[in-house]
Amino acid sequence: MHEDEPVDELEGTMDEPGLTGIDRQHLESIPPIKRVEAVLFLSRETLSSRKLGQLAGLEDGTQARTLVRELNRRYDRESRAFSIQSIAGGFQLRTRPQFDPWISRLGNRAETVRLSAPAMETLAVVAYRQPVLKAEIEAIRGVACGELLRQLLDRGMVRIAGRSPELGHPYLYGTTRKFQEEFGLSSLEALPRAKQLRGTGLPSPVPPNKNSTPDSDTYPLDETGPSHQNQGPSFNP
Q1: So what CATH class is 7-99?
Q2: What residue segments make up the domains of the chain, in order of their start?
Q3: Where are the alpha helices (DSSP H) in 23-155?
């Protein structure tokens, strides 16, 4: 595969016309497991099993999942510094967390969204109670959260998940795929203590102080700190 080959031309398996211009015979001579490894190595985002199968010229997503498991067995057996992780319903090749101190010295880590403590608290409520109303978030936290929700929406961590059937049909909020990617979650069920806290276990709602000011006035969100795609922030509500 040539480096300058556009991604769009890799859509579909090798039996489809999408590979026009590529040396088909040479590509077919490369073992499928190596093609999967090469695609994951170069990908900057998570890939679903179907997408991974298309890009690597496999039969289907099932074969892609099988080869991912085999690659991870090899990485574990050889004590490699990286593994293929299940993130947001897809796969991504990431370095193992214990190597972060050395990787951080490179100074070229991709920026990630960094959140203040109040923003993290708001995000945690959304994550565990979604779909959730703004009024419910404010009742749990005891302060106004409108500005924080707006900032979380702007940063792609929270989305509008619909409208409530209640009077006025207020917005319902939920988390996004980016949220799962940032925190290295394969799904929402991978949240810490998900079964215990999804809808239960959070503080009892209390009426928000109408005279209080939004947390974001005191704790602005900061996106300037270094990070990289191989190591997301920890999510500990």
Answers
A1: mainly alpha
A2: 7-99, 117-217
A3: 24-28, 32-42, 49-55, 61-77, 100-103, 117-129, 134-141, 146-154
Q: What pTM was computed for the model? A: 0.54
In the chain, what is the straight-line distance between the N-terminal and C-terminal CA atoms, in Å?
Answer: 45
Specify whether the CB–CB gap between 210 and 74 falls below 8 A: no
User: What is the CATH code for 117-217?
Assistant: 1.10.10.10
Q: Which one, of 185, 168, 171, lies nearest residue 234 by Cα? A: 185
DSSP string, 78-105: TT-SEEEEEETTEEEEEE-GGGHHHHGG
Find all residues with CB under 8 Å of 70, minimum gap 6, and list them.
33
Cβ(229)–Cβ(110) below 8 Å = yes
Asked whether the domain spanning 117-217 has the same topology as the one spanning 7-99, the reply is yes
Block mean pLDDT (10 aa), the chain, length 237: 38 48 68 94 91 91 94 95 90 87 72 81 93 94 93 93 91 92 83 64 48 39 34 50
